[in-house]
Amino acid sequence: MTRWACAFCGPTDGKRTKEHLWPTSLYRRVLALLDGGEQKFWVARLDKAISNEPTIRDVCAVCNNGELSRLDNYICQVFDRDFSVIRERGEKVALEYDYHLLKRWLLKMSYNSARMSGSDVPVFQPLLPYIMGQSLSAGRSVKLFLEMTYPSEIPSEEAQVGMPTTVRPVVNRVGFVGYETPTGMKLVRAVHLRSFSFLLAFLPPAASAASMRAFVEEFLSSRPAARELRASMSQVMLHCDGIDCWTSLTSGMTHRLGFK
Ligand SMILES: [Zn+2]
After folding, report:
1. pTM given for the model
2. Has residue 16 been placed in a domain?
3. What is the percentage of the chain residues whose pLDDT exceeds 70?
4. Assigned domain for 192 exists
5. For labelling alongside 86, which of 78, 79, 107, 171 has CA 20 to 30 A away?
């Protein structure tokens, strides 16, 4: 068999697998949770998004069925316990997490999304040993934040007959979120698991501890409802008051499962 390069483990003559961005296990969970009012609207959009979504064929069966599927299993467990529940605005939220399993999975999703859309793939190369669980220190230049997305009213000019008048964060999405800095708007990657919006900031791998702290401070002052998740902690408390669901869905920063 010809040798080829697996996106996660490099040169191999193993079997190629074909993948959609979202693990089937998670996609099925979201579909099962949609209630009657949301069903008609979202199922059609999800089906369309999934059928239009490119697949990737650059992951070997060993990675896919081994380490990567272990990460998927972890996320499905937390999904069933926490992410499945839509939170209301102002609600107090506590999330228990395994920092590295969570961050490795979020990076895997972001890397898959980047390869599918042909965007910033090279930034993920130094992170592969981290994603694969071979080196925890290789992930330290990525800062992880959580911010909650809350249900919001659909503006009257956008409302459609027979549709709910509020939009709730019922689906999972991958995209970007902007934040203000003194030098202008910057973007961080975002993975939204229903109400839970995880934000990933990629700092230079050689960044000093002081410059990382300065970044975190600047970021949190621009997004006061967000919290940093840290390796030394296993729980975070925050209020559901971060991102307006309608704005998030329509901001054009949602690349995968594109809702236009
Ligand atoms: Zn591989």
Report:
1. 0.92
2. no
3. 89
4. yes
5. 107
Q: Which two tokens stand for residue 140?
A: 């330290």
Overall residue count recorded for the chain in this entry: 260
For residues 110 and 87, give the distance between their C-alpha atoms in angstroms, rounded to a whole number: 24
Q: Is residue 44 part of a domain?
A: no
| Nearest CA-CA partner of 107 in 126, 79, 84 | 126
How far does the centroid of ligand 1 lie from the alpha carbon of residue 63, in Å? 4
Structural domains counted in the chain: 1
Q: Which has the closest alpha carbon to 25: 82, 69, 88? A: 69
Domain extent at residue 165: 87-250
Most confident of 50-64, 128-142, 170-184, 238-252: 128-142
Residue ranges near ligand 1 (ion) with Cβ within 5 Å:
6, 8-9, 60, 63
- What does the pLDDT read at residue 34? 81
User: DSSP states of 233-252 as a string?
Assistant: -SEEEEES-SEEHHHHHHSS
| Residue 259, domain member (yes or no) | no
